[in-house]
Every structure is written in C-alpha cells, then in structure tokens.
Prior knowledge:
- By secondary structure, this protein is mainly β.
- Helices cover 0% and strands 55% of the residues.
- It has strands at 9-22, 37-50, 68-69, 72-86, 91-102, 113-114, 132-133, 135-148, 153-155, 158-175, 186-198, 204-214, 222-228.
- Strands 1, 2, 3, 4, 5, 8, 9, 10, 11, 12 and 13 form an 11-stranded antiparallel sheet that branches. It has a two-stranded antiparallel ribbon with strand order 6-7.
Amino acid sequence: xxxxxxxxxxxxxxxxxxxxxxxxxxxxxxxxxxxxxxxxxxxxxxxxxxxxxxxxxxxxxxxxxxxxxxxxxxxxxxxxxxxxxxxxxxxxxxxxxxxxxxxxxxxxxxxxxxxxxxxxxxxxxxxxxxxxxxxxxxxxxxxxxxxxxxxxxxxxxxxxxxxxxxxxxxxxxxxxxxxxxxxxxxxxxxxxxxxxxxxxxxxxxxxxxxxxxxxxxxxxxxxxxxxxxxxxx
Length: 233
C-alpha cells in the first residue's frame, strides 16, 4: 500500500475574541434586521509552517517536505448596524463593515484574505487576485423590502410565510499583496430574493437566491443559492 497524502501545511493558532450584540428582536428579525448593532473582533497569533514549492525528491521521485515559517498576527473585526427606514412597512437598511489585517506582509499568499465570493464582494470570484492581500476592507449596504410578512401560502409540502426583495451594494479594497494586482477599490451590486417558512414535519427553512455583478465592463453575473434553517445575516 502507498500513502499518497501530502502534508503541505502545519499550524497552530491562539485567538482572543470579543462580541457585543444589542438588538430588539421581533418576528422575522433574522430575515429583515431593523434595529440595533453588533460588534465582533478577534486577535490571533498564528504559527504556520507551509511548503509552497512542492519539490520532488531526486532520489525517490516523490514530493519532499520543505517547510518554511509563515508566522503572523491576524486581526479581524466586523461591525453591523441596522436602520429602520419605514417602520410601518418594515423597510430597513443593513450596513456592515469588515476589516482583516495580517502583520506579516511577506507571508505566502496561501494565508491572504480573499475578498470575493459569498463572504466578500459577491460580484467577484472568491480567489480574484484584485481583491486578495494581507489587508482587506469591505463595506456592504443592503436595502431590505418585505414582499409579504406573516402569511401562510401553501406550495407542495412547504408553507411560505415571509418574503423579501433586497438590493445589495458593496465596495472593497485589498492591500499589501505580493503580486501587485491589489490596491484599488472595487464595487459590486446585486439583487437578493428571500423566502422563509416551514417544510416537512414543520422544520423551518430559509431560502435565498442572489445575483450580483461587478462595476466593470467585462464583469459577468455571479449567482448564489442558500438553503438553511434560518438566515444568518
């Protein structure tokens, strides 16, 4: 038997975190947050060993382990703020700021922040080099408009109770990257449609479909579908 695994990364991480939430919850709050704020922050000490070369042993013809150290401090913070625009209609504006900072600017890009995809600028792919680096700043504004709330529409084995349509605008910048492609602000916008209700055996479901496009001439649409028990933001 041959072991074909290749251990190219070893690491230890010590993290101190802080979180503060100040909300006044009401029905369908997770679907359309309308008040309050949230603060998250964490500071980590990372001891990383990484083998980016994937060198082949001349004697055995197999991959050799040649680790190099990529130790760093890492700081992350996330700030959320919810504003009720038309309280009677439950129309709200959700704002979010994300910051990521790595102290070691010579670290391998394996440890970079990647600012695209569902967790970043959604009009860009996750590994887009233009928004990856040792520093990342993301700004998100989401205008959430209910289509209906507290209804009971049956469809197959589903009961649909709430629906909303949302406009999402994002800006972001990544800095201090080795390849030199980062350092400029990029923007993205899109539409999200949310459904919330219950399914088999009264299990809750939260369905989200999003389509986003970057503010560039050569940009293409990016589509995202999520099906969970509850909305996470």
